[in-house]
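User: Predict the structure for this protein chain, please.
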Amino acid sequence: MRYVTADQVRRAGGIRMRAREAGGPALHPGGQHGSCAIACGNRRYLGTFVIHRWTKGIMHATSIRHATQRTPASGIAQSRGAGEPTGGGRVSHRLLRLEIPVFPERGMFRVHDAGVDPDAPGGPLPPVGALVSLNREQLWVGSLQEHVEVKLVLEEWQGAPTACGDGWDEEAKGKLYLRGLLSIDMGSAGRAVGGLRLVGGTGDYCVRVYARNREQVVQLYRELFDRYGDPLGDEFQRARKDLESLEQYLIQLWRLS
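Assistant: Here is the predicted structure, written as structure tokens:
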């Protein structure tokens, strides 16, 4: 088992691990699979990654497959091997679950097919005030602020999951065409995820987006100015950090038959 830090993951175009820091036997490029766990503070992303190439001692792997949750409290990168019981019965299989911090640069983050340039002409309109804006290959998720990191949970399902509107403030639905690889872009802040391989492969996907605490975080951030004044001061910055992950998003997607 190999561990890498969050900094080696969150800002990279895909999953990267430095060989000299990883320890254990070397892995080689060429589409091979290697088990590895990614350390993110007290969280662990555990799964199988497809290794594509090495560049200056860095392993580039852009696929997470059959990830399992090692620490139930964190809910990171897990999948179920059977249908999950909820209340009245069993629901569709969940194939993948990934929980990551995302920075809403320009008040949004962008979920898209990995082969698409989100900055190229023809993208969706910015979701100003709205929860989502989308076209055939891109889903832009809107935040009401651009100062505080948010939490995103991404799930791939075998079929339509049971709706989970309770506990969420807002909901939106749509459809995306994906070629089996998905990226999450944060603009100038880089990519949160690059080339995540979907079990469903190429095709049309239904997408549900849930959000909570969007307005609350905006209000709490404004109150920091009244309380601390200087936004560059240590007290202000500590209080701002306490707001991280309070604003939350859940994206569920599944391949259409």
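The first helix runs from residue 7 to 10.
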